[in-house]
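Pilot study result, target chain (168 residues):
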Amino acid sequence: MTKPQDIIVALKICLSGMDGSFAARASELGLSASEVHAACSRLTEARLLDPDTRKIRRKAFLAFLVHGVPFAFPAQPREVTRGVPTAWAAPVMAGKVATDETVVPVWPDPDGLRQGVAIEPLYRSVPFAAKNDPALYDLLALVDALRIGRARERAIAERELQRRLSHG
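Predicted structure:
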């Protein structure tokens, strides 16, 4: 059964492959080496990671992101807090969606620069991982748009994810 941290590991593999050790990948993502190893095992079992090439099966993974993640890992806006902008409030979707700037979605983070409604990240280490890798931040924010967005935001996020994940 897939866990939320598997999505983060798979997105990172899409960006930079499986080069390096599990420990190195873990430190980039704010996970333990055993969590990364277990995530890779679950991704292989789910047929999202090819065991021979150690590459993400991007077409299947994109289908899972679009059609599975919003149901397997839903999120609801909560209290107003300080945090890191996500979904349509993140830079990756800036200017693509007309929104009410007073209720932007954010991952709660005491070091965050924006006030907004709290959205529970896929996994507790998401704000850390996003700060360390701008390309991963973009992908995680797009996944959040799939998780919490309306049809328009989801469609924009799907197109952008397809564009970014189609190569490799």
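One observation from the pilot: The chain has a mean pLDDT of 93. A full batch analysis is planned for the follow-on phase.
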